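DATA CLASS: polypeptide
GOAL: derive structure tokens

***
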Amino acid sequence: MSTNYPRKEDNSLAVVWRDEGCDDSQVNQMTLKELREQVMLVANALDTIFSKGDAIAIDMPMTVKAVIIYLAIVLAGFVVVPIADSFAAKEIATRLRVSRSKAVFTQDFIVRGGQKFPLYSRVVDADPAKAIVIPASGKDVGVQLRKQDLSWNDFVNSVNHLPRPISCSPVYLPIDSTTSILFSSGTTGDPKAIPWTQLSPIRGAADWWAHGNVKPGDVFCWPTNLGWMLGPVLLYSCFLTGATLALYHGSPLGRGFGKFVQDAGVTNLGTVPSLVKTWKNTLCMEGLEWTKITSFASTGEASNIDDDLWLSSRAYYKPIVEVCGGTELASSYIQGSLEQPQAFGAFSTASMTTGFVILDENGVPYPRDQSCIGEVGLFPRHMGATDRLLNADHEEVYFKGMPMYKGMKLRRHGDIIKRTAGGYFIVQGRADDTMNVGGIKTSSIEIERVCDRADESVLETAAVTAAPAIGGPEQLAIFVVLKKGFNSEPDRLKKQFSKAIQMNLNPLFKVNFVKIVPEFPRTSSNKLLRRVLRDQLKCDLHIQSKF
């Protein structure tokens, strides 16, 4: 891989963006010099209010202003606490409490599809000590603020007395000092509070330099949020490699986002599989020129091969780099690589500095050249990974009960992965999502892949099992979201799914229930919450047992 790249200059593009609804306007641009000046302005304003080391939250969409605030908090020696803007007040309050945040940056509203959705009111309900409120549109905040809160204008005007251009010396701290506190999905109890050190951003950016060949001159776009680890990873991957960050201020579901990708000249486009499925089924990206894209990336959930093929075809069949990792790793542990042949829906290698084995049911590693399915065990040394949690026992969460391998205590991650005969890897879901069907262990992902293709009316499926309240073998249920404009009966789908599963997976498998739902429950990072569906199935089985 060549490293003879041009250096970024002051007039190089740092960020490009467009607001939803302005699809025919010019793409906004910010140079590296302009970004630096804005970050230093905010860093100085922070110094007028807070003490070094204070935790300061951001709860807002991933806009240019949010990126500036994020960088300023780190530059000035504070700790940034990003929170997904989709969270309810209770979840926001938990994250503010656990991180001990002294304040939160937020917006008055979130604007999507021409509609305003309240955000400041949700944040106020979470009762932060102080909120600094940015207007979603216009110059002035569109809500009445509490006494202790500040408008964005008042905040930045606090440093009007400083000479221009404003300067700010970065705060130098030890490599293991905390720069950010991120949170796990938090599906049970308090979410794990995961501190990122000075090394974590370097690791995240290094993955995209090494595996995605992101470099100066590239334009990297990935619709996400700072509250999900992908947001900070994208930010650092651009600014540490010299690429330009591309942001769309709005929903990525429609043609407006696709036109931005075209007009901004995006070269590296990141996705999540459910987003690609929506694009494909709504035909919203037809006729757009994505010819500057050199590679795609995909993460968050298992990819669908047909959807991947469709996505790749949008840019003359460019490769799709699959990514799987975790917030506590600050990166991936398994990934595709542009230095290797890629296969749709599969990973080609362990990520840089990572080692892992695949464990059988007894915790014994399979031979490295053997095709197999099992739980992944990570080598304990992983550049950028956590060595502590703020509100849980790190040793118990990640190491307790894991086997030894060549003198190393393996690190738990919780994924079930398959190594194919050709040496590729396919994630089969979480260990929690394995199921026992007819006395045989299988994964939700395997069943869903078959069911997704069993009938033309199906948009996506989710497979879960539960034992009846009165006992007996686990019952297999398929939850279904139908494509727009399609109608189908559960009984007909049940026959279709059973036939497809018996032909393609195992003739002993049987679908017991099919339930059609409008949408699936998901985390803020778009991961399917099978646990919620499993609880719903248990409730349905309990009701049936009474009759």
Summary: The chain has 14 helices and 29 strands. The longest strand covers residues 411-419. The mean pLDDT is 91. The two ends are 66 Å apart (CA to CA).
